[in-house]
Design a protein that fits this description.
The chain is an alpha/beta fold. The chain has a single domain (25-316), classed as Alpha/Beta hydrolase fold, catalytic domain (Rossmann fold, 3-Layer(aba) Sandwich). Helices cover 36% and strands 16% of the residues. The protein contains 12 helices and 8 strands. It has an 8-stranded mixed beta sheet. It starts with 24 loop residues before the first strand and ends in a 7-residue tail after the last helix.
Length: 323
Amino acid sequence: MAAADETPPAYGPMLEGFDYPYPVRTFDFSSQGEDVQMTYLDVAPDTANGQTVVLLHGKNFCAATWEGVMGPLLEAGYRVIAPDQIGFCKSSKPAAYQYSLHQLAANTHALLDSENAGPAIVMGHSMGGMLAMRYAMQFPDSTAGLVLVNPIGLEDWKAEGVPYLGVDAWFESQKQTSAEGIKAYQKSTYYAGEWRDEYDRWVDMLAGMYRGDESDIVAWSQARTTDMVFTQPVIHELETITAPTLLFIGEKDNTAIGKGWSPEAVKSRLGDYSVLGEDAAGRIPQARLIEFPDLAHSPHIQAPERFNARLLDELESWPAPAD
């Protein structure tokens, strides 16, 4: 975050001025009667191993937040593609878009087709993990493997008793977003109560989109994508995933959509990733569970060296999960 005597950065609704670790490309296409632009990173390794990894960001993340994973993957020979989904970060935020995980998966598939990416290892974190599962169900022939990093959606929040608030209420809530609120949430949920200076970059990234006269564009997209993840569970279909799957779980994670406005009896049983991870791994036919007992929602950011070493070890035995 900006120092007390500095002006906080303002990036605008398209994250203008926030630098990504690699050149940003654009994929222009028509969707739902709108001309939209999907930004993405597509980086080739110096020495290719013939495999592609597609990185899907979470709801409070962007393609840039994968930078600590992209470098090691590239060094190991993987081509890496990391899009910003429509409605997020540097991509278009159409006011009347009907958001669905199916639509975002179809957009991603169209992007990969345009780049002749072929069957790819699809890796998703947080909401991106939820999207990656939908992608694997929707496009099994295009999914060489599935890697899930603390995905949300491992429980059906509405079925668990979380009240439905609706887009209007979520919009009003999103308009109150601040750097201080983002940091407090991330500290408790993403990093198990600890904070390091390098995390400030990601707080500034998010908060900067809400600064300026067009902040409602971001809040409106975020409200509607909250509705998307709340009303479109994937948990009931895990048995249909055919791709070999690696499930990375930071067990100190406590993420659950709606936990903050739920009754105490509901709140107390939500977001227990030590249980959710084991349950999901038992239901996905070809899944291997890798647990980090001391890490939280963002293990690849919280402990990048440890996470990347384990990731590359596991990918070397692809496509069959280890015993």
